[in-house]
Specification:
Layout: H1 4-8, E1 14-16, H2 20-46, H3 59-86, H4 90-122, H5 128-135, H6 137-168, H7 179-227, H8 235-270, E2 274-276, H9 278-299, H10 301-318, H11 334-339
Parallel strand pairs: 1-2
Helix pairs in contact: 2-3, 2-9, 3-4, 3-9, 4-6, 4-7, 4-8, 4-9, 6-7, 7-8, 8-9
Membrane topology: Multi-pass membrane protein
Protein name: Taste receptor type 2
Pfam families: TAS2R
């Protein structure tokens, strides 16, 4: 059985947990759907449809990181569930736990920078800083992603070391580490804790500003075009509208999950009364990942086009909508064949 609640209980505090059956019934389908959908997205990025425009950098890297983080999160969470069925030691739990949280945080921040990238591409830059960012968007994105991954990885490593030392009950007399070293690790862990929460909050602000700025610009642009009596339902405008809508919905998802993330982190770290169990947190995280996965399907034409192609191929394989030839067709004369009207069947999606 799952022993996570016993492992996480550091002090005599009340914890909020889900039962084992609820975990399997809720997280199981979420893990399966998220993993399947994001593997499909990864295949779309590796083998893009021939009839769609190829993605350029840094958009392809942003999508690739977001998809890979969702895949690794789902795989790590499934492995963590399997590990806790057999092992009850804290050391076997904390490392997979930190890996899961590492990919979750990366997924959150990558979605922010993806939305910021669309903001830079859609909204005309007027300030000098934004003009410079738009001109050097590829280099800026690479630097941001490098900092993002390095910072989160460092914080995750510090959290892991601090938790291992705290739970192992290390003392100054029984270990080679001095008290100053242990205190320094504890202090570094607290700095990383506040730093990563501040970083997530700044990402929330960037996501909010970029999403609503893009929506405001498109609203004014479409209104001006409509007043001139011009035709504005072009594929480009429709694509920008779709990206903007999914960006706003992603912002709402991010706000809801970030609010829970802050509450969960601070109650676990400072509350003397209660805290949420890891699996309770993972359930909310899986729901957030599900929302991100659905948003990618709506906002990215490469995923929709490949899904449509796969659906058409599946229908053709099953023979749905296909015309069955007459058993006497081979016996028709050449004149009858010439007078036969061909039937074209279109399989709509």
């Amino acid at each position: 059985t799952i022993k996570s609640t016993q492992i996480l209980q550091a002090m005599e505090r009340q914890y909020i947990d889900l039962g084992e059956q609820a975990i399997i019934l809720i997280d199981g389908p979420l893990i399966f759907f998220n993993l399947t959908a994001n593997i499909f997205y990864a295949c779309c990025l590796i083998f893009p449809p021939c009839n769609t425009q190829r993605l350029k950098q840094p958009l392809k890297m942003l999508l690739g990181l977001l998809v890979s983080c969702s895949i690794m999160y789902s795989v790590s969470l499934a492995l963590l569930l399997c590990v806790l069925e057999e092992e009850t030691s804290f050391e076997m739990f904390i490392v997979p736990l930190v890996i899961v949280r590492f990919y979750v945080t990366n997924s959150m921040t990558c979605s922010v920078w993806l939305n910021f990238y669309y903001y830079i591409q859609i909204v005309p830059a007027q300030r000098a800083l934004l003009i410079w960012v738009k001109t050097n968007i590829k280099s800026v994105t690479y630097v941001i992603l490098l900092f993002n991954g390095t910072f989160i990885l460092f914080c995750s490593a510090v959290f892991t070391a601090d938790e291992l030392f705290q739970r192992s009950g290390l003392t100054n007399t029984s270990n080679t580490l001095t008290g100053n070293q242990i205190d320094g690790l504890y202090f570094t862990s607290r700095i990383c804790f506040f730093s990563i929460n501040v970083y997530i909050f700044l990402c929330l602000c960037i996501l909010t500003v970029s999403s609503f700025s893009t929506a405001h610009y498109l609203h004014r642009h479409i209104k001006r075009v409509a007043q001139r009596g011009s035709f504005f339902s072009t594929p480009r405008i429709q694509s920008q509208q779709r990206v903007t809508v999914t960006g706003i919905s992603q912002g709402v998802l991010y706000f809801l999950y970030a609010s829970f993330y802050f509450f969960d982190s601070f109650t676990y770290m400072f509350s003397m009364d209660f805290y949420f169990s890891a699996w309770f947190t993972f359930t909310f995280t899986s729901l957030y990942t599900l929302g991100t996965t659905v948003n990618l399907a709506i906002g990215q034409v490469i995923f929709r086009q490949r899904a449509a192609d796969a659906w058409k191929a599946l229908k053709a394989l099953c023979g749905i909508g296909m015309v069955t030839p007459s058993p006497d067709a081979s016996q028709l004369t050449s004149g009858e064949i010439a007078n036969t009207v061909p039937v074209d069947v279109q399989m709509s999606v």
